[in-house]
């Protein structure tokens, strides 16, 4: 496998990430941040890559 050498800087949108351990914690976070349009991220590897490499913005 070759590693691509580049001078390109990748800037992701600013966001907060929480990792609740229970359903109750997850629901509390959703309620707390509903005005900020909180989203649930399950897995999310692809989403994080797209945020770094494209113009994908979270609302």
Automatic annotation (TrEMBL):
Source domain of life: Bacteria
Gene Ontology MF annotations: flavin adenine dinucleotide binding; oxidoreductase activity
Matches recorded under InterPro entries: FAD-bd_PCMH-like_sf (IPR036318), FAD-bd_PCMH_sub1 (IPR016167), Mopterin_DH_FAD-bd (IPR002346)
Entry coiled-coil feature ranges: none
Domain Molybdopterin dehydrogenase FAD-binding: 14-58
Full protein name: Molybdopterin dehydrogenase FAD-binding domain-containing protein
Taxonomic source organism: Candidatus Infernicultor aquiphilus
């Amino acid at each position: 496998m070759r590693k691509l050498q580049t001078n390109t800087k990748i800037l992701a949108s600013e966001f907060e990430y929480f990792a609740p351990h229970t359903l109750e914690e997850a629901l509390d976070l959703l309620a707390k941040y509903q005005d900020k349009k909180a989203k649930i991220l399950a897995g999310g590897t692809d989403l994080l890559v797209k945020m770094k490499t494209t113009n994908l913005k979270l609302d």
